[in-house]
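Possible regression after last week's pipeline update?

I re-ran a chain I had predicted before the update to compare outputs. Posting the input and the new output here so someone can diff against the archived version. Not blocking, just want to make sure nothing changed silently.
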Amino acid sequence: MGDRDVTVPRDRWAVARTALKETGDRFAALVAGAPDPGAMATKEWTVAETAAHVVVISRMYTSLARADGTPLPIDGLGPAVAPVTIETVGLFNDVSLERFTERDPKVLAARLRDDIAEILRITADADPATPVPWLGGSLVPIGGLFAHLVNEMLLHGWDIAPAAGVRWAIPPRHAALFFDLFLLGMLANGTGGLLERPGTTPSPRRITVRFHSRYTTPARLVAQAGKVTAGPPGPGTDVHVAFDPAALNLMLFGRISQPRAVLTGRLAAWGRRPWLLPEFLRTVRVPTIPYARGSAATDSR
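New output (post-update):
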């Protein structure tokens, strides 16, 4: 568990709800308008498969956002959720795409819009700080579900846009939700077994990183022995990281390289032990998908 009280300020909740609707509409229009659903959006997934992956998540969240144990609406997917770790999330994605077989872009776009409308409806009077079970036994606040789905659409919109021949904007105010509501929310509630890496010996070294952004709550993350906790800024910080939320998310999920984020001025690190940042990021890992365009092509966007 982290050492932060889990709260979601009213203004952040309003941003999350607006971002979900606006990003959902943009992503649905992008998918429905893609000229070739069979074009590759990533090394492994076509445009249609990438869209289906996003809809799997929106389908799941129509149940999870109820916070009452309602079964997932995709048959057979429920038992696959609890055992997921950061090392096996790719297998979970494969299973989910086998279970959810729709690939028509227009149908997927309509389903996404319907799911988002349902999520917004059932959470209209909800406390966004209410924790719900997520992958690997972790707990994420309802507001974090919004942030995660928004981030999935922003990143996968980035993947699909080149195949559709359009540009894709990632508003920093919307991208910031991933750090504020999802990442900090999950760390505060508990990561369960999600970050476990069987067969490896985690470093006992304590690494403390303070994250600064004009769009996010100041926070200090501490990694030690394979565990990560979050709390308010304090003394003893090893690394300070100033970041643009869109760039941080693109970097964490492998869309742009760390050097590109630094050279474009969208990420900077300093402090008494800045060389510890790569080790820290190996602990605070997020799942990535191999990309066909490679870092050089991605960085040029």
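Follow-up from reviewer: compared with the archived run. The two ends are 38 Å apart (CA to CA). Marking as no regression found.
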